[in-house]
Amino acid sequence: MSKGAFPGGYSEGHRLCVSASHGRGLKKTTLQGAFGDFGHILQIETPKSNLAFIAFAEKADAQDAMEAMDGKSLEGQTLTVSKAGPKPTYRPTTDPNENFKKVLMTTQTERENVRYRKDVEKAALTWR
């Protein structure tokens, strides 16, 4: 893998962001058919119905696809095609329960005790 390359063998500049004008959805097979003519596609991701990321093996192929397909219609949807930024990397946490530790858990009794303490403190201040 070359320096600066992402897993899958492509680097920044080889990846396109494709969005559609309607939320009807972009299908991977339709995108493969429309963009596959420009060069070898390594990966197509569809994180949302009207959003896709297409990674090409060659930067020139991605550039050609972006210039040719931006503003074109595909299955009744107008496409906006631009160069995608770097793909985010997943960083697993060392502690699988880390997210649970961030959640504050209280019981009804604990909340009542806090309320009681505040009332007592408030009453003590007014008696002074």
UniProtKB/TrEMBL annotation:
Among PROSITE patterns, the record links this protein to:
RRM
Record-annotated RRM domain positions? 3-86
Q: Which GO terms describe its molecular function?
A: RNA binding
* A Pfam family that the UniProt record links to this protein: RRM_1
InterPro entries (alphabetical): Nucleotide-bd_a/b_plait_sf, RBD_domain_sf, RRM_dom
Residue span of region Disordered:
73-98
Q: Which CDD domains match?
A: RRM_SF
What keywords appear on the UniProt entry?
A: RNA-binding
Instruction: Note the coiled coil stretches, chain numbering.
Output: none
Name of the protein described by the UniProt record:
Rbmxl1 protein
Taxonomic source organism:
Symbiodinium natans
